[in-house]
Amino acid sequence: xxxxxxxxxxxxxxxxxxxxxxxxxxDVSTLSARRFRIVSRAGARQHLxxxxxxxxxxxxxRIDREEVCEAGGTCLLHLQLLVESPLELYRVEVEVLDIxxxxxxxxxxxxxxxxxxxxxxxxxxxxxxxxxPDVGTNSVHTYRLSPNGYFSLEVQTRSDASKFAELVLExxxxxxxxxxxxxxxxxxxxxxxxxxxxxHILITVLDANDNVPAFDQPSYGVSLPEDxxxxxxxxxxxxxxxxxxxxxxxxxxxxxxxxxxVRELFHIEPQSGxxxxxxxxxxxxxxxxxxYVQAKDRGPSxxxxxxxxxxxxxxxxxxxxxxxxTSVSTPVLEDAPPGTVIAVISVLDRDSGDNGRVSCEVSPxxxxxxxxxxxxxxxxxxxxxxxxxxxxxxxxxxTARDMGSPALLTRSTLTVPVSxxxxxxxxxxxxxxxxxxxxxxxxxxxxxxxxxxxxxxxxNAYLSYSIADGHIHxxxxxxxxxxxxxxxxxxxxxxxxxxxxxxxxxxxxxQDAGFPPLSANVTVHIFVLDQNDxxxxxxxxxxRNGSVATELVPRSARPGYLVGTVSAVDADAGLNxxxxxxxxxxxxxxxxxxxxxxxxxxxLRSFLEQDAPRQQLVVQVRDGGxxxxxxxxxxxxSVVETMPQTLSDFSEFSLPPEVSSSSPLTLYLLVSLGSxxxxxxxxxxxxxxxx
Length: 691
Fold this sequence. Notes:
This protein has four helices and 51 strands. It is mainly β. The protein has six domains: 3-97, Cadherins (Immunoglobulin-like), CATH 2.60.40.60; 110-206, Cadherins (Immunoglobulin-like, Sandwich), CATH 2.60.40; 214-314, Cadherins (Immunoglobulin-like); 322-419, Immunoglobulin-like (Sandwich), CATH 2.60.40.60; 427-529, Sandwich (Immunoglobulin-like); 537-637, Immunoglobulin-like. It holds the Pfam family Cadherin. It comes from Eubucco bourcierii (red-headed barbet).
């Protein structure tokens, strides 16, 4: 529906106009939240405004009806009221009522009217019209003439209902008796209180002129398109005078009561009587102009005659539609349901008839359509779900086309950005990660980086990384690795040992900052790489304090005789644990050799009489790492004539007297230690029994 109110012009700021909240049935407490407002065209003055606290429509700035509505007549302010959530559109018309704030005024305070003494009784002489910008009863209502013995006053009405006055000769003039007459013309409006304006008229009586000019007809009518250019001939007037010489030469001009607007738009050639177009016409402002033209000769007692020319304007499709876009809900959420209102669009064509009838449409390649709410008002709504990640912004082309011939159109583009909704979970760049870390790494060293992407934007795309709870060999995963929540860089919190843990896996989560947040997980496999950090360990033979690994070798041993095997282990892996054996030192290198792969110690030849009975050997075990690590073992081989029945390879024997001789002192020490220990134990038992 449509509401209509009235308000007098010239009210002060804040003056009450209407209670829109009550009249529209709106909840006043929600007006601010629902963004209740007046929708106006860009650049338009906001004469009225709404108080969102109480829904009152009030005067925002002083309204001058004569300024707002130049053409006169009914002065309407068209308001479009908009309220959101849900969207509702209302039309309100406010009629600005005229007040009598202007008095009638004449163009001149005094002017001269020449009348021939031969003028017949009842002759009429048009007078200068007064102007009053007010309308209706507040405009010029009537004229009065000061009392005199020769003239009376008649008030005439033009086609536009405006008034003008004519002097009517009531008594014959005699120039010899009175050459001039003075009268006071008063224009009065119909307002309350009444206002008025005056002008002094000097009537000069001229000698008689035999003949006066005469127009072909008292009234003329002509049609002119509103887009006619300046200089266009409107009409050729023709008046004739039967006199000769100057008394028969005619001059044309506007009558004194021709309105100022007419003088701005039209021009009369004084000699030819051609009425020419002077200024731009506008059918939408006025479709009829009333011209009052006078003609008089150049004689000494010239008397003017008058005619009326009615100029009817023909509407031309010279105004393209005007499109006003009022954004309502931009940006629009990408999950907005179909039918969501994006904008309110108003179109206006200042032409009339078919020239002012407008249709509006949008380009077909966008998910929007126009729905007509009121005449020349449309709402732009969505037709389907949007996806910001596919199209983040739409440029909607709106075309308004009138029905004129040829048709005029206006295109306007509305940019509709799509607002993001957290509808996409993060996605890691890889389905899983495999990370290889060299053991003995420095605590705190970066070991890898994971990265995820989120096609959403702003906070919905801001990601934070974390490690899911879990255990590695019974210890919390957080004691092994950490992750930078912003960058996804991962760090080792401890030095890893290949010999203790060779691989483990953790779950990394990427979570966005949307509401509610969305997340994704990825598995990170961490493999510890071996480093050559363990030297070989001799397992057999094992030397003890104060002793060396010894072995007995029969003198009768032949070449290739297996003396024993050096065994070692390496905790590393791969090449780092591949061992090789080498004989570093020997009393006689020609007697023994060591197998590089197995560590077997064998004789190279048979023993000779001159060979030493004791052979000292040093065997080195070396791994294959870079750099290589090694261990050595010292062996003492004794060459004997006969072998004991039970001996294992590389059994430990006491050194011979030359190497390690026994001493009575050792025996004494052992006996003393045993006696002391026995005495102490006996004392403990006695004390326990007593207690």
